[in-house]
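Ticket #392: bound-state structure for pyridoxal-5'-phosphate.
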Amino acid sequence: MKSGSFPSTLGAAIRHEWLLDPSKLTVNHGAYGATAKVVLTAQDEWRRRMEAQPSLFMRQTLPPALRAAADGLARFVGAEGRDLVFVDNATTGCNAVLRSLDFAPGDEILILSHAYGAVRNTVRYLADRHRLRIVEAKVAFPQPAADQIVAAVASALTGRTRIAVLDHITSSSAIVMPIARLVALCREAGVPVLVDGAHGPAHVDLDLTALDADWYVGNCHKWLMAPKGCAFLWSRRDRQTEIHPLTISHGFGRGYIEEFDWTGTRDPSAFLAVEAALAFHEALGGAALRERNRKLAERGATILASTLGTELGAGTELSGAMRLVRLPITGPASPDRALAARHQLEIRGCDAPVSALNGGLWLRLSAQAYNQEADYEQLALLLKAICHEELR
Ligand SMILES: Cc1ncc(COP(=O)(O)O)c(C=O)c1O
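RESOLUTION: The complex was predicted; output attached.
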C-alpha cells in the first residue's frame, strides 16, 4: 500500500458486506446511503417475528422494542430516548415540526440559501398558507468561512422571525455548518431552531443535549446505513407538547412519544433494525470511521481537483465525508449542463450529483467505508474524459 493511503481492511476489501453492484463506481453515499447485508438480515428477522404473530407483535412486542431502539439511537446522538421518536425520513420530521407550529401573518421563517429543496417547499407551502415571509441567509460559495455564515444568519434574524430552519450539512454544497454557533445565536435572539440534520448522524459527531436546539431531525438511512425509511425527530423537552406527527392516530392527546410511536399500521422493521446499524457502524470503527471517511473525501476531492485543474467547494473546517469539486467547463454553467454531465457519468457506470452553483458546475462526491482512494482516481479520469469530450 502507498504511504498516506488508507487501510486495506476497509474499501474494496469489505465491499462484499453490501449488495452494491460490483460493476459500478459508487461514490454517492450521501444520496440514499447503502445498507449492509447484516443490517438487512436483522430487518428481515424483525419482519419474520412480526408476520409470525402480527397482532401480538403490534400490541405487545413493538411498543417496548421501539422504545429500546429509540434508547440505543438516543445514546449514540447524545440524547435520551424519551426525547426521540422515529419518523420515516428527514422530510417527514421537518414537516411534523413546521406544520405543528402556529403562525401569524407577517411572521418570518429563516432558511439558508442552500436549504434542501423539499424542506424549502414545506416552508413555501406554509408561507402561502399563513402569509409568511421567507428570509434567506445567504451562504457564500465557494470557500465559505464560518464567521461569514454566522454573520449572514445574524443579519437575517429580525423581531418577526418565528423559526430558523438550519441545515446541519447542506445537500447541494456539502457544507458542514457551524451549527453550535448558529443555534446559540438564534437562542440568544429568542428564535426557535429546527436543525435539518438529514446528513448528520454517523457522518459527524453528535451531542444533541449539548447542541440544545429546539428540534433536530436526523436520517439514519444515510450515513448510519440503517434500512431506508429510518429517521428520527429529537425535541427539547419544553418543545414536545406543541409538536404532533403528520398523521394523527390513536396516540393523540397521550403525549409526544405515544403520538409518534403509533401513526397507524406500517412496517416498523427499518426503525427496529437501527440497533443492528449502530452495531455495524461501531464494528467499522465508529468515530474512527467517521474521521477516516472525512479524510478520504478530502483526499478524493484533492485527486479530482488536481486531475481536473480546478478547486474544492469548501475547506477542511466546514467539510465532512462529502465534498464538492468544480468541473472544468468553458461557457456558462446551467442546470441543463449539470444534468448532461451527470448523464455522461451514468452511462460510464457512475452515479454522482452535479449541480450548477454560483456560475460553476460542481460534482459532489461521498466517502463511506466501502470506498477507497482508487475510486476517486477512477472518477477523476471519467470526469476528465467527459469534460474534454462532452462539455466543451
Ligand atoms: C439537508 C437535507 N434535508 C432533507 C433531506 C431529505 O431526506 P429524506 O429524503 O430522507 O427525507 C436531504 C436529503 O438528501 C437533505 O440533504
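RESOLUTION NOTES: Residues 89-91, 116, 118-119, 167, 171, 196, 198-199, 219 surround pyridoxal-5'-phosphate (CB under 6 Å).
TICKET STATUS: resolved
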